[in-house]
Design a protein that fits this description.
- One of its GO terms (biological process) is hydrogen peroxide catabolic process.
- GO terms for molecular function: heme binding; lactoperoxidase activity; metal ion binding.
- This is Peroxidase.
- It comes from Arachis hypogaea.
- This protein is mainly alpha-helical.
- It folds into two domains: 126 residues, Peroxidase, domain 1 (Orthogonal Bundle); 129 residues, Peroxidase, domain 2.
- Helices cover 49% and strands 2% of the residues.
- A two-stranded antiparallel sheet has the order 1-2.
- The longest helix has 22 residues.
- It starts with 6 loop residues before the first helix and ends in a 20-residue tail after the last helix.
Length: 322
């Protein structure tokens, strides 16, 4: 019979493991309780505003989620996407992936002013965006997750990085995989995070080639999308990214992919005889595993190189550096 494991060794091991866990978390230096004393009502303020915004326009949940994604993929989750261009500064709003498509800035402004009224010069725009992205998903029926806080706001932005690092809707699987890997996100994270396309809409210019020229597409679906996306013109015409429940956060995006009804090239490549087919099939049949993986991947994405401590600043107005 095996000897019992000595209690003192077990206690020591527990302590070592908990220290390791703490060091991994503090490495990112984000904590869900970061504002517990300095701005205790923060989460309630953000939630209330997001409820209002999404009730008024369900698409806003998707728009804010996309803003967060585009923020995190350019020099980390630092609120850089929120900075307006000025005569002496070119930011990320005018970059290809954001120009005339990134939206929801007014919602973030409105939340920021409510937060400033409650606890001025305390909470970063980067943290407000991280919370708002989560709350928008929850309002549309999606999963929740614990948002680590303590990010600070960048004093600069990079149009070049936005143009080069945000994945394109025309990307193949290999490009998507490497773009995500560069940010510390694996192929499973990529496939789970792509499920954000269960909500929101895309402009005709981003799916025209897919519905007119690609062959791995359901013919009836292609015909229905052409109705609102002429072969020339109508670039900004919108179509929902998912066909079944476009205003509800669920796993129907993956059912669309299995049925060859992915709207963007970068959607359908996840189910096209490649490495992610099995996972897409699994998510299409099991929303619990999709929700769980999506939430975990959102936490990972939210941890991409945040500014912490004395780096950056706490912007007073999300659109301009102090």
């Amino acid at each position: 019979m095996a000897a019992p494991f000595p209690h003192h060794l077990f206690v020591t091991l527990s302590i070592i493991l908990s220290v390791l866990a703490c060091s991994i978390v503090s490495n990112a230096q984000l904590s869900p309780n970061f504002y517990a004393k300095t701005c205790p009502n923060l989460q309630a303020i953000v939630l209330s505003a997001m409820k209002q915004a999404v009730t008024k326009e369900p698409r806003m949940g998707a728009s804010i989620l996309r803003l967060f994604f585009h923020d995190c993929f350019v020099n980390g989750c630092d609120g850089s996407i929120l900075l307006d261009d000025t005569s002496t500064f070119t930011g990320e709003k005018s970059a290809g992936p954001n120009q005339n498509s990134a939206r929801g800035f007014e919602v973030i402004d409105s939340i920021k002013s409510n937060v400033e009224a409650a606890c001025n010069a305390t909470v970063s725009c980067a943290d407000i965006l991280a919370l708002a992205a989560r709350d928008g998903v929850v309002q549309l029926g999606g999963p929740s997750w614990t948002v680590g806080l303590g990010r600070r706001d960048a004093r600069t932005a990079s149009q070049t990085a936005a143009n080069n690092q945000i994945p394109s809707p025309f990307s193949d699987l290999s490009t998507l995989t490497s773009r995500f890997a560069a940010k510390g996100l694996n192929a499973r994270d990529l496939t789970a995070l792509s499920g954000a396309h269960t909500i929101g809409q895309a402009q005709c210019q981003f799916f025209r080639n897919r519905v007119y020229n690609e062959t791995n597409i359901d013919a009836n679906f292609a015909t229905s999308r052409k109705a609102n996306c002429p072969s020339t013109g109508g670039n900004a015409n919108l179509s929902p990214l998912e066909t079944l429940t476009p205003a509800r956060f669920d796993n129907n995006y993956y059912r669309d992919l299995v049925a060859k009804r992915g709207l963007l090239h970068s959607d359908q490549v996840l189910f096209n005889g490649g490495s992610q087919d099995a996972l897409v099939r699994s998510y299409s049949a099991n929303s619990v595993s999709f929700f769980s993986d999506f939430a975990a991947a959102m936490v990972k994405m939210g941890n991409i190189s945040p500014l912490t401590g004395t780096s950056g600043e706490i912007r007073k107005n999300c659109r301009v550096v102090n």
